[in-house]
Design a protein that fits this description.
This protein is 72% helix and 0% strand. The chain is an all-alpha fold and 279 residues long. It has one domain. Helix 1 crosses helix 7, helix 2 packs antiparallel against helix 5 and helix 8 crosses helix 9. The longest helix has 35 residues. The chain is globular, with a radius of gyration of 25 Å. The termini are far apart.
């Protein structure tokens, strides 16, 4: 008795497989966005950025308004209400910089960077995705803080001292520049973290560039210090937040271009080191 054997129908096992090292960049962006919004450090550092940027600006403008009637004519002549209301951004820069550092260094500290690079072997693409996601968050946060600080500061000054409006020359540029300054400075910090890899070392380097380096330059002879000082990120920030030209400094947008160059260079060096070094 013969038994007819029928071949079982072939089961299709085909599936969409993404070749190793060719993961879609949109997936990297989504991954980095998930990481950034689900860690507590993001909320706390953005909160610190807002409190410093808005709170310190309000205190500075309130103090200025209180002593306006006792100010000398020379100080009144050089008074810049826009810059005073944005004073807090020069402290908020530390908070946004720390967040930029943690975006990279936190994964090295916990060892999760190994899992990230296992899933996405294109290490340079991972760093670019981190920079894009963090840069977008920093830009939106920075602009919100800058505009709120400006409007609250001018409301405090109104009726007590001269105040500014966005329609006045260079005022809108300074307020928008405040948010841009925070975002690019945060990206510079992110690049430093990619180079150093350790949170403490990266924070120390970042703080040194912002706070210690200007003190060293100030101790130099003025003929040398003025030429070097114009390249410092902190001085570039002061010029960008002001509506008046300050001494031998770069113009606001030229200085901003220099700052962007620093950030791009730091991220590029960090990306090259990430590719070459072991995790």
């Amino acid at each position: 008795m013969s038994v007819t054997m029928r071949e079982a129908p072939a089961v299709s096992t085909s599936r969409r497989v993404i070749p190793d090292g060719r993961y879609p960049f949109s997936g990297l962006l989504a991954s980095e966005w998930t990481k950034l919004r689900t860690v507590r450090s993001t909320m706390w550092t953005l909160l610190a950025t807002a409190v410093a940027g808005i709170g310190i600006g309000a205190i500075a403008t309130a103090a200025t308004a209180a002593r306006w009637s006792r100010m000398s004519p020379l100080r009144r002549l050089s008074f810049d209400p826009t810059r005073v209301s944005l004073t807090g951004l020069l402290l908020a820069q530390l908070a946004i910089g720390i967040l930029g550092i943690l975006v990279v260094s936190a994964e090295y500290s916990t060892g999760t960077i190994r899992a990230t690079f296992s899933v996405a072997p294109r290490r340079s693409a991972v760093l670019v995705a981190k920079a894009i996601v963090f840069g977008a968050v920093a830009l939106v946060s920075g602009e919100v803080v800058s505009f709120v600080a400006f409007f609250s500061g001018q409301a405090i000054l109104s009726g007590k001292a001269p105040h500014a409006t966005l329609s006045q020359p260079d005022v809108l540029r300074a307020v928008v520049g405040g948010g841009l300054y925070l975002a690019v400075l945060g990206l510079l910090a992110l690049g430093i973290a990619a180079i150093v890899r350790h949170s403490a070392g990266a924070i120390g380097t970042f703080v040194g560039i912002l706070l210690i380096l200007p003190l060293i330059v100030a101790a130099l002879p003025s003929s040398i210090g003025n030429q070097i000082g114009r390249y410092l990120p902190a001085n570039i920030g002061v010029v960008l937040l002001s509506t008046r030209h300050l001494g031998s400094s770069f113009s606001p947008w030229v200085g901003f271009g220099v700052l962007c160059g620093y950030a791009v260079a730091a991220i590029a060096i960090g990306g090259a080191l990430i590719v070459r070094r072991d995790v």
